Every structure is written in C-alpha cells, then in structure tokens.
Amino acid sequence: MEEMPFNDISYERFLNDEKLMGSRCRKCGMLFVPPRCICIKCYDTDMEWVDMKGKGKLAAFTCIAIGPPLMIKEGYDRKHPYVSGVVELEEGARVVARIEGVDGSKPETIKIGTPLQVEFLHRAEADGLTTYLAFRPS
Ligand SMILES: [Zn+2]
C-alpha cells in the first residue's frame, strides 16, 4: 500500500475497494483527502497513507438541480435535486461528497453538523466501474 503514488488514480482505486484514504504529511501532520503528493502547508513531499474511518459531520452543502448526465439518469432533476456536501471527517480533513438519504428539495430539513457515515456508490460506466464517494446520516 505504501508503494502507491499519492494521486487521484490511487484514491479511486481505494474507493473501488470501499476504502477512503488520504495522505498525511509526515513533517507537519496536515491531512489531505483526496491525497496530495506535496503538502500545501509546508511543501514537504514526505507523505504517508492514512485510512479514514468514514465518519464525519456535514460542514456545508448545496442542492444541485441541474446535474451531470449520470445524475439525470439516476432520476435527479429540478424537482428532485441531489445534494453535494462538504464533510468534515473525524480525522480533521474535509472532503466533498454526495449526501444520500436527505431531501434535496427541502434544504431547510438538512442540518449543518449532522453526523454522517461513508457510503460507496458503484456505477458501471462506459470505461468500467467507477465508485463515487457519498455520505449518509448515521
Ligand atoms: Zn506538511
């Protein structure tokens, strides 16, 4: 695992295996999800993989009425917006993900600070299996 480069390809491969992985700077401890190979805080490149527990809370969200074709295919539209959120992980990093199990047409019912649990959405696409990161109220 340590051999894998700190990039999006590795990150997506881990997602396919239902693992949420980030990289941590060995010098200053800054954590990145998705992983980065260079620390944006101290510019060091000494990184290590860290396994996220997949628990966090909702820090911000947007209801998206006009989504990409994949989302339209899943039945999301102006009347059924889907929710994209920023999740603050227990480990401290923030990650953008789809928020499942909430009603995007009633944003007033979605609360900042809601405890969330990771969920992996596997989708068959033209170029193979893709896994999308999602979270759902725990
Ligand atoms: Zn650093």
Structure description:
This protein has 138 residues and is mainly beta. The protein is built from two helices and eight strands, in the order αββββαββββ. It has helices at 8-16, 69-73, and strands at residues 21-25, 31-32, 47-51, 55-64, 82-89, 94-99, 115-125, 128-137. The strands form two sheets. Strands 4-5-6-8-7 form a five-stranded mixed beta barrel. The chain has a three-stranded antiparallel beta sheet with strand order 2-1-3. It is globular, with a radius of gyration of 16 Å. The two termini are 29 Å apart. The structure holds zinc ion. Residues 25, 27-28, 30, 39, 41-42, 44 line the site of zinc ion (ZN). Zinc ion is lined by residues 25, 27-28, 30, 39, 41-42, 44.
SSE inventory with pairings:
Layout: H1 8-16, E1 21-25, E2 31-32, E3 47-51, E4 55-64, H2 69-73, E5 82-89, E6 94-99, E7 115-125, E8 128-137
Parallel strand pairs: 6-8
Antiparallel strand pairs: 1-2, 1-3, 4-5, 4-7, 5-6, 7-8
The chain binds zinc ion.
Zinc ion is lined by residues 25, 27-28, 30, 39, 41-42, 44.
In short:
The protein is mainly beta and 138 residues long.
Order of helices and strands: HEEEEHEEEE
Main structural class: mainly beta
Mind telling me the C-alpha Rg?
16 Å
Instruction: Characterize the overall form.
Output: globular
Report the sheet-strand fraction.
35-45%
Mean pLDDT: 93
- Helix count equals 2
How would a crystallographer describe the biggest sheet?
5 strands, mixed, barrel
